[in-house]
Amino acid sequence: MVTARLIFAALADETRLSLLQRLSRGPRSITQLSEGSSISRQAVTKHLKVMQEAGLVRCSRQGRESVFQVDPTPLRQAEDYLNQVSAQWDEALARLKAFVED
Fold first, then answer.
1. Distance CA 85, CA 40 (A)
2. Which of 28, 53, 68, 95 has the lowest CB atom count within 10 Å?
């Protein structure tokens, strides 16, 4: 099972966020992801490995190429986690407001 720590750690890097954004438009090979970019294929591969370990992307083979695509499940888990934290903060702020106003 992927932990929230792995998901957020993977998302914390600007390059990985950029790769995830590109993958959100559809499956891409490492070659396609490195085209027009200042990062090398090796760097793209390393970032994709981190994202794959966090469950954010899946890999399949098409001929000789590895093709990556976004797996939305961990992103939904991260969203659920952030919604829970947000609700806790909203409750805490409401209690503080009630305390101050009384």
1. 37
2. 95
CATH topology of domain 4-101: Arc Repressor Mutant, subunit A (1.10.10)
Could you tell me the pTM of the whole model?
Answer: 0.79
Domain ranges in the chain are: 4-101
Strands of 57-62's sheet, edge to edge? 28-29, 65-70, 57-62
pLDDT 10s digits, 41-77: 999 999 999 999 999 999 999 889 999 999 999 888 8
**β-pairing verdict for 28-29 and 57-62:** unpaired
Tokens describing residue 53: 């370990």
